[in-house]
Amino acid sequence: MFVQVCLYFYCKCLWRCLKFVVRKLTGRCELQRICYNTKPGAARTMKIEASLKGSKSKRLQTSVSVHPDAIEKTIDDIMELKRINPDINPQLGVSLQACLLQIVGYRNLIAEVEKLRREPYDSENPQHEEMLLKLWKCLKPNSPLKARISKQWCEIGFQGDDPKTDFRGMGLLGLYNLVYFSEWDTEIAQQVLSDSLQPKYSYSFAIVGINITDLAYNLLVSGALKTHFYNVAPEAPTLTHFQQTFC
Length: 247
Fold this sequence. Notes:
mainly alpha; 2 domains; GTPase activator activity; ELMO_dom; ELMO_domain-containing; ELMO domain-containing protein 1
Protein backbone atom coordinates (compact mmCIF):
# COMPACT_ATOMS: atom_id res chain seq x y z
CA MET A 1 0.00 0.00 0.00
CA PHE A 2 2.80 2.42 0.95
CA VAL A 3 4.66 1.65 -2.27
CA GLN A 4 1.50 2.25 -4.33
CA VAL A 5 0.90 5.60 -2.63
CA CYS A 6 4.51 6.65 -3.24
CA LEU A 7 4.26 5.55 -6.87
CA TYR A 8 1.05 7.52 -7.32
CA PHE A 9 2.56 10.77 -6.02
CA TYR A 10 5.75 10.16 -7.99
CA CYS A 11 3.82 9.73 -11.24
CA LYS A 12 1.63 12.74 -10.46
CA CYS A 13 4.65 14.95 -9.82
CA LEU A 14 6.44 13.57 -12.87
CA TRP A 15 3.38 14.30 -15.03
CA ARG A 16 3.16 17.89 -13.79
CA CYS A 17 6.88 18.40 -14.43
CA LEU A 18 6.49 16.99 -17.93
CA LYS A 19 3.58 19.33 -18.67
CA PHE A 20 5.65 22.29 -17.42
CA VAL A 21 8.58 21.35 -19.67
CA VAL A 22 6.34 20.85 -22.72
CA ARG A 23 4.70 24.24 -22.16
CA LYS A 24 8.09 25.92 -21.97
CA LEU A 25 9.25 24.20 -25.16
CA THR A 26 6.07 24.78 -27.20
CA GLY A 27 4.85 28.02 -25.65
CA ARG A 28 1.40 26.48 -25.32
CA CYS A 29 -0.55 25.15 -22.33
CA GLU A 30 -2.21 21.74 -22.40
CA LEU A 31 -5.59 23.17 -23.42
CA GLN A 32 -4.00 24.95 -26.37
CA ARG A 33 -2.15 21.84 -27.49
CA ILE A 34 -5.35 19.78 -27.35
CA CYS A 35 -7.41 22.30 -29.30
CA TYR A 36 -4.74 22.85 -31.96
CA ASN A 37 -3.65 19.24 -32.38
CA THR A 38 -6.94 17.31 -32.02
CA LYS A 39 -9.84 17.42 -34.49
CA PRO A 40 -13.27 18.58 -33.23
CA GLY A 41 -15.44 15.83 -31.81
CA ALA A 42 -15.31 13.31 -29.02
CA ALA A 43 -11.51 12.98 -28.99
CA ARG A 44 -10.99 16.70 -28.40
CA THR A 45 -13.87 17.19 -25.96
CA MET A 46 -12.93 14.22 -23.80
CA LYS A 47 -9.31 15.36 -23.62
CA ILE A 48 -10.43 18.88 -22.65
CA GLU A 49 -12.77 17.42 -20.02
CA ALA A 50 -9.99 15.25 -18.55
CA SER A 51 -7.58 18.18 -18.55
CA LEU A 52 -9.99 20.49 -16.74
CA LYS A 53 -11.01 17.86 -14.19
CA GLY A 54 -7.39 16.93 -13.53
CA SER A 55 -6.23 20.50 -13.07
CA LYS A 56 -4.85 21.60 -9.71
CA SER A 57 -6.93 24.78 -10.06
CA LYS A 58 -10.40 24.63 -8.49
CA ARG A 59 -11.64 27.20 -11.00
CA LEU A 60 -10.72 24.89 -13.85
CA GLN A 61 -12.13 21.82 -12.12
CA THR A 62 -15.51 23.48 -11.61
CA SER A 63 -15.66 24.84 -15.17
CA VAL A 64 -17.12 21.52 -16.37
CA SER A 65 -20.21 21.97 -14.20
CA VAL A 66 -21.15 25.62 -14.73
CA HIS A 67 -24.54 26.79 -15.94
CA PRO A 68 -24.77 27.05 -19.76
CA ASP A 69 -25.34 30.81 -19.48
CA ALA A 70 -22.00 31.15 -17.66
CA ILE A 71 -19.88 29.39 -20.26
CA GLU A 72 -18.68 32.55 -22.00
CA LYS A 73 -17.58 34.04 -18.67
CA THR A 74 -15.92 30.73 -17.80
CA ILE A 75 -13.93 30.80 -21.06
CA ASP A 76 -12.71 34.29 -20.17
CA ASP A 77 -11.66 33.06 -16.73
CA ILE A 78 -9.78 30.11 -18.23
CA MET A 79 -7.95 32.34 -20.70
CA GLU A 80 -7.03 34.76 -17.92
CA LEU A 81 -5.90 31.97 -15.58
CA LYS A 82 -3.78 30.37 -18.31
CA ARG A 83 -2.45 33.79 -19.38
CA ILE A 84 -3.63 33.31 -22.95
CA ASN A 85 -4.18 36.39 -25.07
CA PRO A 86 -7.59 35.96 -26.76
CA ASP A 87 -6.61 38.41 -29.52
CA ILE A 88 -3.68 36.23 -30.53
CA ASN A 89 -5.62 32.98 -29.99
CA PRO A 90 -9.18 33.78 -31.21
CA GLN A 91 -9.92 30.21 -32.32
CA LEU A 92 -9.03 28.79 -28.92
CA GLY A 93 -11.99 30.47 -27.22
CA VAL A 94 -14.36 29.16 -29.90
CA SER A 95 -13.01 25.61 -29.55
CA LEU A 96 -13.18 25.68 -25.75
CA GLN A 97 -16.72 27.03 -25.85
CA ALA A 98 -17.87 24.19 -28.14
CA CYS A 99 -16.26 21.61 -25.85
CA LEU A 100 -17.75 23.11 -22.68
CA LEU A 101 -21.20 23.25 -24.28
CA GLN A 102 -20.96 19.51 -24.92
CA ILE A 103 -19.57 18.70 -21.46
CA VAL A 104 -22.11 20.81 -19.58
CA GLY A 105 -24.88 19.72 -21.94
CA TYR A 106 -24.19 16.05 -21.21
CA ARG A 107 -24.54 16.66 -17.47
CA ASN A 108 -27.79 18.56 -18.02
CA LEU A 109 -29.10 15.80 -20.30
CA ILE A 110 -28.55 13.25 -17.53
CA ALA A 111 -30.58 15.47 -15.18
CA GLU A 112 -33.39 15.86 -17.73
CA VAL A 113 -33.53 12.13 -18.47
CA GLU A 114 -33.45 11.30 -14.76
CA LYS A 115 -36.36 13.66 -14.12
CA LEU A 116 -38.47 11.90 -16.75
CA ARG A 117 -37.48 8.49 -15.41
CA ARG A 118 -38.57 9.45 -11.90
CA GLU A 119 -41.93 10.86 -13.01
CA PRO A 120 -44.56 8.08 -12.80
CA TYR A 121 -47.25 7.66 -15.40
CA ASP A 122 -50.44 9.31 -14.14
CA SER A 123 -53.69 8.25 -15.78
CA GLU A 124 -55.30 11.39 -14.32
CA ASN A 125 -52.88 13.60 -16.26
CA PRO A 126 -54.39 14.53 -19.68
CA GLN A 127 -50.93 14.98 -21.24
CA HIS A 128 -49.84 11.51 -20.17
CA GLU A 129 -53.04 9.99 -21.51
CA GLU A 130 -52.70 11.91 -24.78
CA MET A 131 -49.18 10.55 -25.31
CA LEU A 132 -50.32 7.00 -24.64
CA LEU A 133 -53.18 7.28 -27.13
CA LYS A 134 -50.79 8.82 -29.66
CA LEU A 135 -48.61 5.72 -29.35
CA TRP A 136 -51.57 3.52 -30.25
CA LYS A 137 -52.61 5.70 -33.21
CA CYS A 138 -49.08 5.69 -34.64
CA LEU A 139 -48.69 1.93 -34.37
CA LYS A 140 -52.27 0.86 -35.14
CA PRO A 141 -53.78 3.65 -37.28
CA ASN A 142 -56.36 1.33 -38.84
CA SER A 143 -57.50 -0.28 -35.58
CA PRO A 144 -59.41 2.14 -33.32
CA LEU A 145 -58.95 1.58 -29.60
CA LYS A 146 -62.30 0.43 -28.23
CA ALA A 147 -61.64 1.50 -24.64
CA ARG A 148 -58.89 3.04 -22.53
CA ILE A 149 -58.70 -0.14 -20.43
CA SER A 150 -58.59 -2.91 -22.99
CA LYS A 151 -56.86 -6.15 -23.91
CA GLN A 152 -56.02 -4.46 -27.21
CA TRP A 153 -52.93 -3.00 -25.54
CA CYS A 154 -51.41 -6.49 -25.62
CA GLU A 155 -51.36 -6.16 -29.42
CA ILE A 156 -48.54 -3.63 -29.20
CA GLY A 157 -46.65 -5.48 -26.50
CA PHE A 158 -48.02 -4.35 -23.13
CA GLN A 159 -48.57 -6.99 -20.47
CA GLY A 160 -52.10 -6.18 -19.37
CA ASP A 161 -55.25 -4.19 -19.98
CA ASP A 162 -53.73 -0.94 -18.63
CA PRO A 163 -50.25 0.05 -19.94
CA LYS A 164 -49.58 2.41 -17.04
CA THR A 165 -48.44 -0.50 -14.86
CA ASP A 166 -45.63 -1.31 -17.33
CA PHE A 167 -44.02 2.13 -17.02
CA ARG A 168 -43.08 1.73 -13.35
CA GLY A 169 -39.40 1.03 -13.94
CA MET A 170 -38.66 3.83 -16.41
CA GLY A 171 -41.53 6.19 -15.69
CA LEU A 172 -42.44 8.68 -18.43
CA LEU A 173 -39.05 8.17 -20.07
CA GLY A 174 -40.17 4.79 -21.40
CA LEU A 175 -43.30 6.29 -22.93
CA TYR A 176 -41.42 9.28 -24.36
CA ASN A 177 -39.04 6.98 -26.22
CA LEU A 178 -41.77 4.70 -27.58
CA VAL A 179 -43.80 7.66 -28.83
CA TYR A 180 -40.73 9.31 -30.35
CA PHE A 181 -39.78 6.15 -32.24
CA SER A 182 -43.35 5.67 -33.46
CA GLU A 183 -43.56 9.27 -34.71
CA TRP A 184 -39.97 9.73 -35.90
CA ASP A 185 -39.97 6.64 -38.12
CA THR A 186 -43.52 5.32 -38.17
CA GLU A 187 -42.99 2.87 -41.01
CA ILE A 188 -40.03 1.18 -39.31
CA ALA A 189 -41.80 1.16 -35.92
CA GLN A 190 -44.83 -0.56 -37.47
CA GLN A 191 -42.54 -3.08 -39.16
CA VAL A 192 -40.77 -3.84 -35.88
CA LEU A 193 -44.18 -4.29 -34.23
CA SER A 194 -45.27 -6.62 -37.04
CA ASP A 195 -42.07 -8.66 -36.64
CA SER A 196 -42.65 -8.94 -32.89
CA LEU A 197 -45.93 -10.75 -33.53
CA GLN A 198 -44.33 -13.37 -35.78
CA PRO A 199 -43.70 -16.82 -34.19
CA LYS A 200 -40.14 -16.65 -35.52
CA TYR A 201 -39.37 -13.71 -33.23
CA SER A 202 -42.20 -13.45 -30.70
CA TYR A 203 -41.34 -10.56 -28.37
CA SER A 204 -43.35 -7.82 -26.68
CA PHE A 205 -42.76 -4.59 -28.62
CA ALA A 206 -43.60 -2.16 -25.80
CA ILE A 207 -41.87 -4.11 -23.04
CA VAL A 208 -38.70 -4.56 -25.10
CA GLY A 209 -38.81 -0.83 -25.88
CA ILE A 210 -38.97 -0.01 -22.17
CA ASN A 211 -36.08 -2.41 -21.50
CA ILE A 212 -34.00 -0.74 -24.22
CA THR A 213 -34.79 2.60 -22.59
CA ASP A 214 -33.35 1.18 -19.38
CA LEU A 215 -30.20 0.14 -21.26
CA ALA A 216 -29.82 3.55 -22.92
CA TYR A 217 -30.38 5.27 -19.56
CA ASN A 218 -27.64 3.24 -17.87
CA LEU A 219 -25.21 3.87 -20.73
CA LEU A 220 -25.93 7.60 -20.47
CA VAL A 221 -25.42 7.78 -16.70
CA SER A 222 -22.25 5.69 -16.80
CA GLY A 223 -20.73 8.03 -19.38
CA ALA A 224 -20.53 5.32 -22.04
CA LEU A 225 -22.52 7.50 -24.47
CA LYS A 226 -20.17 10.47 -24.21
CA THR A 227 -18.13 9.47 -27.26
CA HIS A 228 -21.31 9.09 -29.33
CA PHE A 229 -22.93 12.35 -28.21
CA TYR A 230 -19.74 14.38 -28.44
CA ASN A 231 -19.46 13.23 -32.07
CA VAL A 232 -23.08 13.73 -33.16
CA ALA A 233 -23.92 16.91 -31.20
CA PRO A 234 -21.80 19.92 -32.31
CA GLU A 235 -22.90 21.72 -29.15
CA ALA A 236 -25.00 20.55 -26.18
CA PRO A 237 -26.56 17.08 -26.57
CA THR A 238 -30.33 17.17 -26.05
CA LEU A 239 -33.17 14.80 -25.22
CA THR A 240 -33.72 14.39 -28.95
CA HIS A 241 -30.19 12.99 -29.32
CA PHE A 242 -30.96 10.51 -26.54
CA GLN A 243 -34.22 9.47 -28.20
CA GLN A 244 -32.52 9.03 -31.58
CA THR A 245 -29.95 6.82 -29.90
CA PHE A 246 -32.81 4.75 -28.48
CA CYS A 247 -34.29 4.40 -31.96
